[in-house]
Amino acid sequence: MAVIGDLIKKALDITGKIISEPHANAAQKDVLRNMLENARFTAFGKKYQFSKILADEDVIRSFQEKVPIHDYDKIYNEWWHYLLEGHQNVTWPGGQQYFALSSGTTSASKSIPVTEDMLSCIRKAGISEITNIGAFDLPGDFFTRQILMLGSSTNLIGQDDFLLGEISGISASNLPGWFGSFYKPGLEIASITDWDEKVKRIVEEAPNWDIGCISGIPSWVELMLKEIVSYHKLTNIHEIWPGLAVYTTGGVAFEPYRKSLERLFAHPLVYIDTYLASEGFIAIQKRPDTMAMALFPDNGIFYEFVPFSPDYVDDEGLIKPGAPVCSLADASENVEYVLLVTTVSGAWRYMIGDTVTITDKARAEIRITGRTKQFLNVTGSQLSVNQMNDGLRVIEQEFDVIIKEFIVAAVHRGDDYVHKWFLSCDKRPDAVQVAEALDKTLQENNKNYKVARSRALKGVEVQLIPEEIFYKWSEETKKKGGQVKIPRVMKEEAFLEFESFVAGQP
C-alpha cells in the first residue's frame, strides 16, 4: 500500500506543477462576467439590467453601481422566499433542490440556496485541496488512508420539492463516487441526526478504520476524540490511528484548541485551515508556512471588500449606504474588511457576515478576523474576535491555563458599562487577576479599547466556568455537534440569559 501511496503522491506533485494558479484579478473578472451571462434572464438579472452591465466596458464598476448590497434579510425578503415557495429563475437559472440551514453564531434560521452549480464548485475546491496537499510534504502512505469528516447529518430534511440541511451534510451527501472508499464515518453513520448516537457509533467503529486525516470544527472534533480515547482506554489517538497526520480545521479559530487537542496526540499533526461557509467554499490554506487561506478566484464566487470601520458599518453589523467597496484588484493588504460574495447559488453582493484581512494580495490570501455582528463596540472599544483570541492566548501563557470557549458582552453596572467575560478554564486562577491581565493586554494592543477604558468602559469582570457548560447551553438552546459554533459576543439581553443559565448549573 505504501508503494501505491508513493505513486499517488508523485501524481499529485506532478499535477500541482502542471496546473498553474490563475491570475486572480483576471479570473475574478471572468467569473463575474460568466455569472452575469448565466443569470441575465432571471428575475433578478432583469431587475438589475445584467444585459446592460455586460455591455459596459467596466463590468465590475457597472455591477457595483447597479446592484445593491444585500444582507440575508434583504435578499430573503425580496427574492429567496420565492425559491422556498417553488418559483424558478429567481436569482439563478432553474429551480432549487437544496437549502443550507445556517448554524452560524448570528442566526439559526437562515435558509441559503445551494445550486447544482455551487455543489460542482465545492467539489472542484475539494479536489483542489487534495491536489494541493502535496505541498505539506506528507509521507506516501498517507494517501492510502481514510478521511474522517465530522459534519452535520447527511439525512436531509425533505420539504415539498427540495431538501434542507447544513452545508457539510449537503456536501457529504453529494460526494463523488470514487471518494467513497476513503470517506468515514460512511453514509450510514453520517446520516444519524442525533449527535450523541453518531459519536457512539464512530467510537465503536474507530478500531476498524485507518484514518490519516480528520476534518471538522475543533470543539466537536476534540469531544469525539476524547470519547474514542476514553472508551478504548488509550493514552492518545495515535494508538488506534498511527497514520493520523492531518487535521483540516474550519468554522472557528483553531489556536484556542491547539493545546488541548495536542494532549490527545502522540505528536502534532499538519494543520490545514479551510473556509467552507453555507454560501460556498471560500478559501483553503495552500502552503505550510502560513495559516492564511487562499481564495478561489476562478470557482464560482466573486469577492468584494468593504472597510470594516464605524464610518461604514453600523451597530447592527450592516453596511451603511455609500460605503466604499473594493474588488480584489483594488483591495489593500492588512486592512480589515467586511467580505461580500456573489455566487453561482444566486447570492448577489451578499454580506456573508465575516470580516477578513488580505495578508498576501499576490496569492489572494486572507485571514478571518471575526464576525460583523460579533464585534464589541458598545463603548467604542472596537474589539474584534481576532483581537479577543490574541488577548486570551497571552492569558493562557501568563497563567499556564487553557481557554477554549468564551462569551463576552458590554453590560450595565448602574449607569456605566463593564465588559463581562465568561471563560472556560482547565484550572482556577484568581478571576480578578485574570481580568486585570486581560484588560492590560487588550489596552496594549488596541488603542480604541484603551481610550474606551478611560471613558465609557468602567471595568472588566471575568467569571471562570467549565467548558462543558458552554456545550450544555449550546445543546439546550441550539443543538449539538455538526457545524454549531459558540457565539463570542452577545448583546446584553441575551448575555444575561446565558448568565442565568450558568447560575443554574450545579
Automatic annotation (TrEMBL):
Gene3D superfamilies xrefs: N-terminal domain of ligase-like (3.40.50.12780)
Pfam family, one: GH3_M
Residues covered by the GH3 C-terminal domain: 397-493
GH3 middle domain segment(s): 298-361
Domain of life: Bacteria
Protein name: GH3 auxin-responsive promoter superfamily protein
